[in-house]
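Hi D.,

Good news: the full-assembly prediction came through. Inputs first.
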Amino acid sequence: MLQRLPHLLGIEDLSTEQIAFILDQAKPFQELQRHPLKKLATLRGKTVAVAFFEASTRTRISFTTAAARLGADTMALQAEASSLKKGESLIDTVRTLEAMRPDGIVMRHSSSGAPAFVAQRIEVPVLNAGDGMHEHPTQALLDALTIRDRKGKLEGWNVTILGDILHSRVARSNIHLLSKFGARITLCGPAMWIPRGLETLAPGLRRTTCIEEALSGADVIMVLRVQTERIHEPALSPEEYVLRYQLTQKRLCLAGPDALVLHPGPMIRGLEIDSTVADGPQSAVLEQVTNGLAIRMALLYHLVGGAPADAPHPAKDRSNASD
Amino acid sequence: MRVVEKRQLLSADQIGRTLQRLAHQIVEQSGGAKDLAFIGIRRRGVPLAERLAGLVRDSTQVTVPVGTLDITLYRDDLSTVGPQPVVHSTEIDFPVDDRDLVVVDDVLYTGRTVRAAMNGLFDLGRPRRIRLCVLVDRGHRELPIEATFVGRTVETADSEIVEVRLKEIDTEERVMLVDRVD
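Then the structure:
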């Protein structure tokens, strides 16, 4: 199923079968997290370059841990891409990465499309760990896994995405993924943060600036991180955001007792989400972290493991090995 | 590659009687069934382990737990086989610490699958003992691994394949020797 997927650059181009396959393959890796010994030797001898050209703690640690638990070595490459002109810095990026001879590259970059640019010029698999305002595919996959586990299925839910949709690659990847599985998506936040044109991605997409309207009937609520540097007066004050858009227990009641609350992290308690909700029974934020590991292990296993297609076959085939 | 059937090694009846004998041997050589647990290796080791547990229960009234082990992540040939094989779940919902484990598989060949299975089991804990039970031992070992309980030993050529068909997975039940024709 993933044979024809040499890289993971975004959710947009994946089929529902490919997405379901990745989610299914995450299951054995979820179980591994409960084993007393969590470290495998499956990718022993492989090296994964973890190239982050934009600040990140969680995603970087998650990918590094996923690689370590599969027995792969990691090379960390961190740099600020902002000081150079984008085109030049990306070509330098490719050369630097190639020179390290990795078996796979996990890449985050502040420019949309940077991982795709690198993937076209390099032989090894590239996994997008977030590019500009474009996509963050592993986040959408771990969110989907969490929804499927907690609500029993992925198809057909009313999903409300709350906050700064405009700047959010998490929102974009999630809109792509969930709409492929028949979700009815509502975007909610201050008008300046809800871009037009997203209807083309997801039929039936609804937008509102009224949180009460957005929460009513919601099965899944995705709270996005509010970047404080993007809140400034006079357009919007933090106090006003809290007043109008914070997910509080009282507001959550509008969505009903079975509604699931997700947050990609890091959370700013008291800004976009109230602590009672974040720590409450409807919140799945910690499962999201564990599921992130499982999704990234499954992807590294399938994309980085294995030999290139033209590799010679072993002398003896495995006809009588367990299938 | 085409394969042709050369001869049948075990009929459905013979498989049944072989498992009966293996179940008796296991109980006999374990001093009862109290601390035993069966671990079936995916895929055809799983129904065999379940059948052995059923036979042990019939004769001793002891319910021996059965776990399922997927060895994919422990294979030593992953970097040479092209696209990665699909990973399945390992379902062992009892602690393996201090257990007397009997690993069950259909065919013992190179021994590499059993090596992988032992690695997988060690990640789950520290069993008191691990023994191996196979329906057919076809020789050609590449590792110093032998089975404690063997249903049938068969001399084979390297080009031949021992095909096990079980009713839980396949449409029929028998074991046959097939050969590759290039």
